[in-house]
Design a protein that fits this description.
heterodimer, A: alpha/beta, 10-stranded mixed β-sheet, 19 strands, 39% strand, B: 507 residues, 6-stranded parallel beta barrel, 12 helices, SUF_FeS_clus_asmbl_SufB (chain B), Fe-S_cluster_assembly_SufBD (chain B), SUF_FeS_clus_asmbl_SufBD_core (chain B), Cysteine desulfurase activator complex subunit SufB (chain B)
């Protein structure tokens, strides 16, 4: 008996699969791409993963993805104001890339639709990594557009790039490819947002070549009735560094996957994340980090705030290969659980095959410290305000670790907005 | 920081090719035919002179087992087990109540001698000498704890309990300590009430199999308010070829009772793999405390990975009453494959669960072990300390779950799991599941790189102790915390591990 064999597809699964035939003629790509799309569809026909699949242990996608909307958007989508004023905005609106503005020196911009048409996307990128890579499969089957950025060797971009994936309901499936060549430096902001009942998926491939340095900010602010499936993959070259900052502040069902491969000796990966979970959100951040080379360093810190009926999940797996001696990996996941109606589950995994490494993880779940609260209240601050201050401070700590003042200010403003809305 | 030489040497001393208990006892056995079917289950039940309801219970378990699938989520790999190629019952012939040393099968005596159990205790084990009586076999005064005669032993040899010592003295205190087969015959009301109440028949694949075919094991009942006057212990020995051992242990501590129970196990060295699938159920009622300790030393297979015991065990304690406490301590060095998660269900308010573990894997051993702490009641607390050491080509995984339910107000957990790798062909893995559904829950999980703080090291070194020694001192002190959770009787075996330092440990 195969535990994962599902005889009948759910209504949502059926809608997802059936959508392909109506959508197919509009999707870009050469013959190879079509083969990949068909393969991805075959996977979807076998049904979405349930919690019996270890990678989906806390997110039963089959049950949670209960509605798959039609492809047609409800309205026109418009680009949003950039997080940082002078950023080059490259919007994907309702699944179509609209950015035509010339970028800073050292940057080449192409649309993903063109690249798919040319057959430029490596075949394995449009292939699900395994039978249960639902995010990869859904996106591979339906991806319509996005951007392909090449950052020239040694180029240091003088303004940030903001990639936007914006919908006005319906289904959107975008993809971003960024190649940061050797010695280059860039700040990239990714916005995932929209309005209305939607299914949005987004897959990112980032290559950070030898000695390159990238700061990537991913801001997910989907509306309350949207399902968002994201997958961020990065590969790090020798002595390169990547700082990835993720802020989740919306969505009904959110799955954000992060797959990072430290393939180059001396590479450094920093992941900082803030999950602001309110309402009935189910938000799952799942990370797999492979240390494949010696002397690689990684630190991961997530701060989660859970209110209302929200449920949060953090799965972080660090794998250290036999050759990756002197790996230094530290992971922390701290949660403030402020409600009895919600929950938070974490699974920080270590898988280690090298004997000279320093790896560790910590995970805590707790309410606000009574002593801290007392300290503030003793100074005449009422309880509600005091609690608010402490919760904000708890997450702001992670944001403040980013070095760029403008970025910190912009993110803290988003934080304030979220708390204003969710009390 | 890689492991220091001292640690490497210590681990080598207990490497798989150093297994001391691999001998075989040539003793005449009665075997059930190979295979598993309803007739075999009836045969076992008949052998044990069980009442009809028990036979039905087993058959029901067998039915459920047939509908279940072997679990595959653990990080262990092994060829498919042919459950029809095993003997489900093996017992040494003529084992009914030996009266003097001469009447005990000498082979059996030799076995216990070889297992390193002290002679005086061996006499006790064979049931010929009452506690406190001098022994002619024992010339010099022994200083080990067994010789104090304060340990009652239930010796399980293949499928049967050979003898249980100190039954009478225990009975005076109201404590029932006997084999589970005897308990089924003589205390059916307790068995019917509690058997399967912590680990339900269909809890998992191996628990279902065990429920169908379990052959023996120990039963302990400590009545209200009684502090068990001595340590209780079971020694499991697999001897016969091609057999599986399926023992079942049930321990009940009534209101305010206390009992400490030890478990040891060994098996002969063979090329084939043998299956050991046990179920242990602990029940602690209001204010009761159960302490369960294991030194698991099944044959681990040879240095090529041939042979060894598959140890697929379900152990679970139910803190059913308020203010109850269950504590698991384990030292795991044996078995080719270990799959065990001694757990606590913290049902009663203010109940407490503890898990202390040292797991050492060598050769081709695979360990996937850990614990579950399920917080259901109010103000429940739990503590997990796990140390994994892998060497050779082994894989050592800690897998643990801590969860707080909606009503588990003020649940607290502290978890610490460290592991150490020695050599380049082994793996160490940590898979914790932390689930909180309550705002007042406080969970801390940590797996730190180094147990030794600069301050501690400085403190010791400034007294003129060199760094290496200082590290060893601090680390030994730390490991002792876990080992001291073991009753004295087992400390000897565990001592071998004390020297292992855990510096440079990885999460």
């Amino acid at each position: 008996m195969n535990l994962h064999a599902q005889n009948t597809l759910t209504e949502a699964e059926t809608a997802l699969v059936n959508g392909y035939s109506s959508r197919f003629s509009d999707l870009p790509g050469d013959a190879d791409v079509t083969v990949r799309r068909d393969e991805a569809l075959e996977l979807l026909k076998q049904g979405l993963p349930t919690r019996r699949v270890e990678a989906w242990h806390y997110t039963d996608l089959r049950r949670l993805l209960s509605v798959v909307p039609d492809f047609k958007p409800v309205a026109n989508a418009e680009a949003v104001a950039p997080l940082i004023e002078n950023a080059l905005v490259l919007p994907v609106l309702n699944g179509t890339a609209h950015g035509r503005e010339a970028g800073p020196e050292g940057l080449t911009v192409a649309t993903l639709a063109d690249k798919l048409q040319e057959g430029a996307l490596p075949a394995e990128w449009l292939t699900a990594s395994d039978r249960f890579d639902a995010v990869g499969a859904i996106n591979a089957a339906f991806v319509s557009d996005g951007y392909w950025l090449d950052i020239a060797e040694g180029a240091e971009l003088d303004r940030p790039i903001e990639l936007q994936n914006i919908h006005a309901g319906g289904q959107v499936h975008g993809r971003f490819v960024v190649n940061a060549a050797a010695g280059s430096k860039a700040t990239i902001i990714e916005r995932q947002t929209g309005a209305g009942d939607a299914l949005a998926s987004s897959v990112t491939h980032l290559d950070v070549a030898d000695g390159a340095n990238v700061l990537w900010i991913l801001l997910q602010e989907q509306p309350d009735d949207a399902a968002y499936l994201g997958q961020f993959s990065a590969s790090l070259g020798k002595d390169s560094s990547l700082t990835l900052f993720i802020m989740n502040g919306g969505g009904k069902l959110v799955r954000q996957e992060v797959k990072v491969v430290a393939r180059g000796e001396g590479s450094e990966f920093k992941l900082r994340g803030v999950n602001l979970l309110g309402g009935e959100t189910h938000c799952d951040v799942t990370m797999v980090l492979d240390h494949l080379a010696p002397d690689t360093v990684s630190t991961e810190t997530f701060r989660n705030v859970v209110t209302g009926k929200a449920n949060g999940v953090f799965q972080g797996q660090i794998r250290v290969a036999k050759v990756a001696q002197k790996t230094d990996a530290k992971m922390a996941c701290n949660t403030l659980l402020l409600t009895d109606e919600g929950g938070f589950s974490s699974k920080p995994e270590l898988e280690i095959f090298a004997d000279d490494v320093a790896c560790g993880h910590g995970a805590t779940v707790t309410d606000i410290e009574k002593e801290h609260l007392f300290y503030l209240m003793a100074r005449g601050i009422d309880e509600k305000t005091a609690r608010g201050l402490l919760v904000k401070a708890f997450v702001a700590e992670v944001i403040e670790e980013l070095e760029d003042e403008t970025v910190i200010e912009a993110l803290e403003a988003r934080l304030v907005d979220w708390f204003a809305e969710h009390g | 920081m890689p492991a220091v030489q001292e640690t490497i040497d210590q681990v080598r001393m207990i490497d798989v090719d150093q297994y001391k208990y691999g001998f075989e006892t040539l003793i005449e056995s009665e075997l059930a035919p190979k295979g598993l079917n309803e007739d075999i289950i009836r045969f076992i039940s008949a052998k044990k002179e069980e009442p009809e309801w028990m036979t039905e219970w087993r058959l029901n378990a067998y039915k459920r087992w047939q509908a279940m699938e072997e679990p595959s989520w653990a990080r262990v790999s092994y060829p498919k087990i042919d459950f029809q190629d095993l003997h489900y019952y093996a017992a040494p012939k003529n084992q009914t109540g030996p009266k003097s040393l001469d009447e005990v099968d000498p082979e059996l005596l030799k076995t216990y001698e070889k297992l390193g159990i002290p002679l005086r205790e061996q006499e006790i084990l064979a049931g010929v000498r009452k506690q406190g009586e001098p022994s002619d076999l024992d010339d010099s005064p022994s200083d080990n704890v067994y010789s104090s005669g304060r340990v009652a032993v239930d010796a399980v040899f293949d499928s049967v309990s050979v003898v249980t010592t100190f039954k009478e003295e225990l009975a005076k205190a109201g404590v029932i300590f006997c084999s589970i087969s005897e308990a089924i015959r003589e205390h059916p009301e307790l068995i019917q009430k509690y058997l399967g109440s912590v680990v339900p028949v269909s809890d998992n694949y191996y628990a279902a199999l065990n429920s169908a075919v379990f052959t023996d094991g120990s039963f302990v009942y400590v009545p209200k308010g009684v502090r068990c006057p001595m340590e209780l212990s079971t020694y499991f020995r697999i001897n016969e070829r091609n057999t599986g051992q399926f023992e079942r242990t049930l321990i009940i501590a009534e209101e305010g009772a206390y009992v400490s129970y030890l478990e040891g196990c060994t098996a002969p060295q063979r090329d084939e793999n043998q299956l050991h699938a046990a179920v242990v159920e602990l029940i602690a009622l209001d204010d009761a405390e159960i302490k369960y300790s294991t030194v698991q030393n099944w044959y681990p297979g040879d240095s090529e990975g041939k042979g060894g015991i598959y140890n697929f065990v379900t152990k679970r304690g139910d803190c059913r009453g308020n203010n109850s406490k269950i504590s698991w301590t384990q030292v795991e060095t044996g078995s080719a494959i270990t799959w065990k998660y001694p757990s606590c269900i913290l049902r009663g308010d203010n109940s407490r669960g503890e898990f202390y573990s040292i797991a050492v894997s060598n050769g081709h051993q695979q360990i996937d072990s850990g614990t579950k702490m399920l917080h259901l009641g109010k103000n429940t607390s739990s503590r997990i300390i796990s140390k994994g050491i892998s060497a050779g080509k082994s894989q050592n995984t800690y897998r643990g779950q801590v969860s707080a339910h909606r009503k588990a107000a003020n649940a607290r957990n502290f978890t610490q799991c460290d592991s150490l790798l020695i050599g380049n062909d082994c793996g160490a893995h940590t898979v914790p599941y932390i689930e909180a559904k309550n705002a007042t829950a406080q969970f801390e999980h940590e797996a730190t790189t180094s147990k030794i703080s600069e301050d501690q090291l400085f403190y010791v070194m400034q007294r003129g102790i060199p760094e290496e020694e200082a590290i060893a001192l601090i680390v030994n002190g730390f490991v002792k915390d876990v080992i001291q959770e073991l009753p004295m009787e087992f400390a000897v075996e565990a001592q071998k591990l004390i020297g292992i330092s855990l510096e440079g440990s990885v999460g």
